[in-house]
Amino acid sequence: MAFIDEAKFFVKAGDGGNGCVSFHREKFVPRGGPNGGDGGRGGSVIIRATNSLNSLIDFRYRSHFKAERGVHGKGKDMHGRSGKDCFIDVPVGSVIKNNESGEVLADLASAGDSVVIARGGDGGLGNPHFASGTNRTPRVATNGEAGEEFWLKIELKLIADVGLVGLPNAGKSTLLSKLSAANPKIASYPFTTLEPQLGVLQHKWFKPCIIADIPGLVEGAHNGIGLGHKFLRHVERTSMLLHVIDAADENVEENFRIIANELLLYKEELVDRMQLLVLNKRDLVEESELRKLTTMFQQMGQHVVSVSGMTGEGIDGLKELVLETLEQGEKEHQ
Which pLDDT band holds residue 229 (cuts at 50, 70, 90)? Predict the structure, then answer.
């Protein structure tokens, strides 16, 4: 199934039903008076978040959503039925925006969150509302109001505890497959992963956490270069970042600075996010060189871990460290 994390769609709430002009007619009851019913209210369009969805692919096949209009009023004081609401289910983490202005209308960050995104029109009034001492036979009723309608944009920000970031071919997909039961595409060329991948990290007695592999970050990603600009928003909700670096690359320090700078330029608050620097592919590096790299990054204030996604060396220790750090972070925010 394709991973779709952006879509545009149209919503139209139901129009209100019209009020009715009617008079009571019964044998031997002259001038029975007005008895036109009110129109029913139009249905509203309601967006709600659910854990049963993890992509916006449904919007590829349906882009128009309309609620039912209210039923018109009838004689004998019969009020029209209200129109049925239209419910749109979206994944947890969806952000709803006005497509024209870009204004954020709703941020559905938890399962069960909902928002009335387009309100149905009020029903029209029947002629009894216009009766008075001087006008006992009003021949006036009002039409129902139009329901709201908009073109909207929906963006999905994945709800994950840990985000894997790094340059293409740093080994993030391999690492994700070792840390969880996820089975991402793995190859020896850059940009193997073209969409975010999720996995669940479970280890010993710790509470499980969700890991997201954020693909395609390159220099200039925050300005739309490469694939990363499409996926940078997925790191916004993560509690922790694993910055994965190819320890066997000649430009280790420069590679670190590229991604660190992209995160900073995209959103400054990411600098203060819990972060571990993961030196991957340690099986391809001499032990002395690995110690040198570790010391260099520690002097830069980084918490460094070295692993081999290919051989599995150091993976268990990384699992424990990630879960311990998350657990400690939760306690500090309680």
Answer: low
